[in-house]
Amino acid sequence: MSIIGTSSINYQTALQGTSPLDSAGTAKSATGFKELIEESVVDQYKRKHPDHASHVDQQVRAGRAVRDRNGSGVSTKDMSMAQYQAWFYALLNTIPYDSTRINDTTSISISDRGWEQMRKDPDYEAWILGYFVEDRSVRNPFFGWGNNDGCMIFERFGASIEEHRGDGFSKAALKGPDPEDEEEEEDWWIKRHKRMKKLMKEQVERSMKRDAARKSAAREAFAKQQYASRQRQHNFLTSGTFDVKPGASVEVPSAALAAAAAYGSILDLFGSAAGDR
């Protein structure tokens, strides 16, 4: 896990505030001195958003615990702004990440006014620390599913809680599609096309075979009918009987026998005439 800290150091060594003496040089009342004590931006946020107060208190307590463990006894009053920033980033580095977030990269940007507010407002400083305690403890539910590149996270802080903005996206989105994945996808479509082409060819061949079988059966049935018809005609002309049922016969009338005999004589006559030539 890596942290990228960015800031613009333009810190004024003297914080501007209301002087305890007015323009006439007279001391202000006790109420005027109370006004010099600035309210924490954390308390301001809780007053504006009472439904978030409990959550903010949890974050502040977590941040104080980080500071007590690693920065107790350290006074930041005499530090330069650069020293304070280095000290704060050192505190951030003590906050662990969940094991599923080891590949995340966080870029932290704090405005000049934000640094000034953190330095003079311990609760706001604690809230930012507590925010990262909470954020880094969140598990990545997709870790171990093949996309373990982690996320790129941008955290921006100003002089109040309302000014905080956080954005993040997967590092895999920066790489674009994997060429091997594209090749596998292309191969899959080629294989699918070939498989569909083969199935269509087999379907056409089966259809042609069925049609050929039906035509063959029809021709065979027609040939059998023709053979049976010629057989009945032959039986009728030669023996004077025709089959009604297999093995059964009936007598043909004498007129039919005479016609058959006359037909036979005609055949003999033409046959003998052709033999004499």
Folded structure, characterized:
This protein has nine helices and four strands; from the N terminus they run E-H-H-H-H-E-H-H-E-E-H-H-H. It folds into three domains: about 1-10 and about 35-175, no CATH class; about 180-230; about 240-275. The radius of gyration is 52 Å and the shape is rod-shaped. Strand 3 and strand 4 (about 165-170) form a beta hairpin. Mean pLDDT is about 75; it is low at about 5-35. It has about 280 residues and is an alpha/beta fold. Strands 1-2-3-4 form a four-stranded mixed sheet. Helix 5 packs across helix 6.
General form: rod-shaped
Helical segment count: 9
- Strand count: 4
Q: Averaged pLDDT, please?
A: 75
The level of helicity is: 55-70%
Straight-line N-to-C gap:
120 Å
Describe the strand arrangement of the main beta sheet, using strand numbers: 1-2-3-4
| Major β-sheet profile | 4 strands, mixed
> Segments where pLDDT lies below 50 for 5+ residues?
7-36
Estimated share of beta-strand residues: 5-15%
Category from helices, strands and their pairing: alpha/beta
Radius of gyration, rounded?
52 Å
- How many domains make up the 3D coordinates? 3
Q: How would you spell out the order of helices and strands? A: EHHHHEHHEEHHH
Q: Which SSEs are present, and which pair or pack?
A:
Layout: E1 2-7, H1 30-35, H2 41-48, H3 53-71, H4 81-93, E2 105-110, H5 112-120, H6 122-136, E3 151-157, E4 165-170, H7 172-175, H8 179-238, H9 254-276
Parallel strand pairs: 1-2, 2-3
Antiparallel strand pairs: 3-4
Helix pairs in contact: 3-6, 5-6
